[in-house]
Amino acid sequence: MNTYRLDDYDKKIIEILQQDSSISNIDLSKKIGLAPSSCLLRVKNLKEQKILKQFKVLVDEKILGFEITCFAKVYIHPLNRETSSKFIEEANKIPEIVECYTITGDASFLLKIVAKNFEYYRDFVFDKLLNVPNVSNIDTSIVVSSEKESSVIPLD
Q: What pTM was estimated for this model as a whole?
């Protein structure tokens, strides 16, 4: 994989956009000390280089009624390309699964799941997750409190 060399302007653009991706180009250009056209070209280049993948809105799931966040290790048997691909395909169809990672170790996947309450999660496991082909076991850890949440990537 190629790495892209960031100059100070690029780093500042990324730092600011990671904090507030809704900032206008005019305000961004003022904060970094570049002309708006130069700033816009740099942002476009960072997108083309796939350094800036997506602009997102972070939602407070608790305010929307999702009281439970948990991480579930999912075990697939037999584990091979076909069963892994099928699991990923199915996981992408389930909205309660907000993140899915292929991992090393004893489990095959690590999922971040949101649920409205414990009963909802129980039903989710039995009605959805265990119905995905080749799922042999699920090991869940429920989040008690969140001490740090960030999507900010350090640049230095």
A: 0.85
